[in-house]
Design brief:
The chain has seven helices and eleven strands. The chain is of the alpha/beta class. Helix 1 crosses helix 4.
Length: about 260
């Protein structure tokens, strides 16, 4: 039996906060165009990336652990007449279809939602197994300039403030970062000020495990994926100490190479 929806609270506000665009689309759309479909998006949420890729004419499978998120994505796809496959689940462990994917993407810190190094390694092995020969994987996680910061532990940080349906929404992040374990416990607090002056509050909590460049590249190689490129932003800039993103692309190795045969 599946457990409780980990993003049921977040789903209600996700589109209002993130909108339909995003700087990362300037990376994901060309990536899909270059490698074609079918495309598997891991952690597709409400379809912010999956739908534009489908609009571009690619076959897309959207995987997400949140039924609430997927319900919104399905509704948006139906309203546009887009045909996508939706799967409720997460890597590692999701029962993926037998489709061999030409491209597989893990955007916007989705990979960090695997809370241990073992789960992250297993997720990459599952991803490699889902790729067609020569298939490409791309993932996007926090870079050196946007890493863990124990100095702000417990401090409410205003992550979003704006109008939603004529009402005022403030979103606060309260973090508990552990550098030794490379983990973050993230509490998200939503405060909606209604027209009658009341404040409605709701909260979600998520466990994340951060990775370094060296560790991530080692995991990819161990999973049978050959690292191709490493970037520090969505415009393919170099990775530096100040880079807020760490973006890596990799290619599925040939089976003989993965087995260590010459």
């Amino acid at each position: 039996m599946p457990g409780p929806d980990p993003y049921a609270v977040d789903a209600a506000w996700y589109d209002a906060i993130h909108g339909e665009g995003g700087d990362d689309l300037t990376f994901w759309l060309p990536f899909a165009a270059e490698h074609g479909g079918p495309v598997l998006e891991v952690g597709a949420g409400t379809g912010r990336i999956a739908l534009p890729i489908a609009r571009a004419g690619h076959a897309v499978t959207a995987l997400d652990p949140s039924p609430a998120m997927l319900a919104i994505a399905r509704e948006r796809a139906a309203a546009e007449g887009l045909s996508l496959a939706f799967l409720n689940g997460r890597l590692p462990g999701a029962p993926l279809p037998p489709t061999a994917f030409a491209a597989l993407i893990l955007p916007n810190d989705v990979f960090l939602a695997c809370p241990t190094a073992d789960e992250q390694a297993e997720a990459l092995r599952d991803a490699a197994a889902a790729l067609a020969p020569g298939g490409r994987l791309a993932l996007d996680v926090a870079g050196p300039g946007h890493w863990l910061d124990p100095g702000s532990n417990g401090e409410p940080i205003l992550a979003f403030s704006g109008e939603v349906g004529g009402e005022s929404l403030n979103v606060w992040h309260i973090r508990q970062d552990d550098l030794a374990a490379q983990t973050r416990r993230l509490q998200i607090r939503y405060e909606l000020a209604t027209e009658d002056g009341r404040v409605r509050r709701s909260e979600s909590e998520h466990a994340l495990r951060y990775v370094t460049r060296t560790e991530l590249l080692s995991m990819l190689e161990a999973a049978g994926l050959r690292v191709l490129d490493v970037w520090g932003d969505y415009t393919l800039g170099a990775l530096t100490n100040a880079s807020e993103r760490l973006i890596v692309t990799a290619e599925l190795k040939e089976r003989s190479s993965r087995l260590g045969r010459s």
